[in-house]
Amino acid sequence: MCGRLNVTDDEFVRGLCISLGINLHRTPIIPNRFVRAASEVQIIREVEGQRVMQKAVWWLLLEPTTTGFKPSKYTSFNTRYDKLNVPRSAGYHPFRTSRCIIPARGFGETEFEQQGKKKIPKHYHDLVAVDGAIAFGGLCKEYVNKETGEVTIGCSVITLPPHPKFADIHTKASPLMLPQDTIVDRWLDSDNQNVDSFSHLLSPSIRNDLDVIQIDKPSQHHSNSKPFRIAKD
């Protein structure tokens, strides 16, 4: 997964948030078709037994500055599935104590190719859930400003092995898309450290039908091919 999300304020994303216990009158959705890595995104998590939707930096590892926190030099907008149970990895403790859900309508993938010593973009695709929203499985971590007490949250999306249906789109990884059933209650339960119960989620799976379109650039979002559909698993 290459670091962009499509968050809409429509019936589908609203429905997902409401089903997860979020009061959208109190915390409205902030729509953004092009959420970049290291920018602000909204996450849903459990705090003191209550579901809340909060702003977070889409970068799990943050470092202090004179004015707060900024993304670390270590790339961490994604957390690989095979690092979740490695004790010294950045995602080990958050996987056990601070899992979250990132609600979105879709996501973008960029395929790179090697040219000499450089990797350059080969093509870009945007993928949008058909008549639904996607519950991305993520991790989060709190950072407290020692002087002001202000809390900044960093987060990441868990990535899985590449999915065969994405072979022509992105060959490096696929995002964890959670099933929207009772598993989300266990996922958001901050007291639940039985991560073995999530093992079945760490294989690539497409939970929604996805409309796919190839685009020129994420910032411009001009279609340059005929859209097609990928069926859910």
Automatic annotation (TrEMBL):
Keyword Zinc: no
Keywords: Covalent protein-DNA linkage, DNA damage, DNA-binding, Hydrolase, Lyase, Protease
Biological process annotations from GO: protein-DNA covalent cross-linking repair; proteolysis
Pfam entry (one): SRAP
One of the record's GO molecular function terms: lyase activity
E.C. designation(s): 3.4.-.-
UniProt keyword Transcription, yes or no: no
Entry similarity comment: Belongs to the SOS response-associated peptidase family.
The protein, known as: Abasic site processing protein
Naturally occurring in which organism (per UniProt): Paraglaciecola polaris LMG 21857
